[in-house]
Here is the input.
Amino acid sequence: MRKINPLWFLMLAQIGLILYGFYRLTLTRLHVRWFEVAWVIIGPVVLMSFFGIFTYYNIKNAYKEPSEARTSDRCPVCGAFVYTNPNTTTEIYLDGKYIYFDSPKDMVKFIKDMDFYISYRKLNIKDKHIKSIYLRDYQTKNWIDGKKAYYVSLGEDLYAFSNLEDAKEFASLNNANNIKTFKELL
Here is the structure.
């Protein structure tokens, strides 16, 4: 569920005050004070510029917490619905957008060839700086930071772990010998 910024309620109250001032100026024959005229004229300009700057700054520099993928979210690499693989869901926060992947392997493919997938899937992304990466720990199923995770390559897929001991244990049980960090994958 996406959170609503509480400052939007403040903006609605401000708009209500502006509309009330406009009502007083135009529809009533009451004596109007000079600051009410200034409030109606200058208020909308100040309000819209403040919230425009505030919203732009928050969208571009937000700290993104992991969230559940919707049933309509698709992987931009393979096109699969993400909700069908809840144990390997990967999420990237990029240019104010949430991009979900059905596996860590597809996330790595996307990062390596970002220009191709952005243009191919028409994602409308200008800033290619990744704010955050979250994925599911294969063992505990909890969200972990993708830049600090350990990855085990097994066959065609990657499995992510929050600590090195779990990754080594999984690799030894499945005869995999390559454990990599995020930087080593790229």
Notes: The longest strand covers residues 130-136. Strands lie at 90-94, 97-101, 130-136, 143-145, 150-154, 157-161, 179-181. The longest helix spans residues 34-60. The chain has two domains: 7-60, 82-185.
